[in-house]
Amino acid sequence: MGRIEYYNDPRAPKPNSLVVACNLLVTDESGAILLQRRRDTGQWALPGGAMDLGETAAQCAVRECEEETGILAEITGFLGVYSNPNHIVAYTDGEIRQQYENCYIGRPVSGEPSVNDEADGVEFVRPEELGRYDIHPSMRQQIGDFLSGDYPYLG
C-alpha cells in the first residue's frame, strides 16, 4: 500500500483516523543511529509502526524495530510523544491519518541489519553523516531532539 506524507502543507486532506504508532531510536556503542529506508516512500526513518491490540507501546516499539531492521533492541529511555496535527499521512486505501507517535530510546541486543518487505535499506548512521540522507522532517525532529538532549518532547 502506498502513502503520501503531508507536513505543514495547507493542501493536505482532512484526516479520518488517528492510530497510535511507536518508534525506537536505537544507538550503537559508537553513537550511530539505526535507520531504515522505507520501501513506500524511499525516505530514511526510525523503525516504528502501528501498535497492535494486546501489546504495550514499548512492546510495539521493540517489535517494529526487529521486524523492520533485523535488530532486537531493548528500551533504555523515552524520547517523547509526537502528535503534530499538521503531519498527515494519506494511504492509497483511503485512510488519512494524523500523526501520533510515541518514541523510545534503545540499544541493540542482537541481530544484524537486514532488509525486508518494509525496508530496502538498514544502516547505523553516525550523527555527522545524517545530512546525506533523505529523512522526513518529522523523523529529523525526533533525531534532533535526541542529539540535543532536549527531551522528553511532549507535543
Task: Sum this structure up briefly.
With 155 residues, this protein is of the alpha/beta class. Helices cover 16% and strands 41% of the residues.
Rg, Cα atoms, Å: 15 Å
Structure annotation, total helices? 2
The gross shape turns out to be globular
Helix content: 10-25%
Gap between N and C termini, in Å? 28 Å
The strand line-up of the biggest sheet is: 6-3-10-7-12
Give the SSE string.
EEEEEEHEEEEEHE
Say how many strands there are: 12
Strand content: 35-45%
Major sheet attributes: 5 strands, mixed
Structure description:
- This protein has a five-stranded mixed β-sheet, with helices on both faces.
- The model has no long low-confidence stretch (mean pLDDT 96).
- The chain has 155 residues and is an alpha/beta fold.
- The relative contact order is 0.28.
- It contains two helices and twelve strands, in the order E-E-E-E-E-E-H-E-E-E-E-E-H-E.
- Helices cover 16% and strands 41% of the residues.
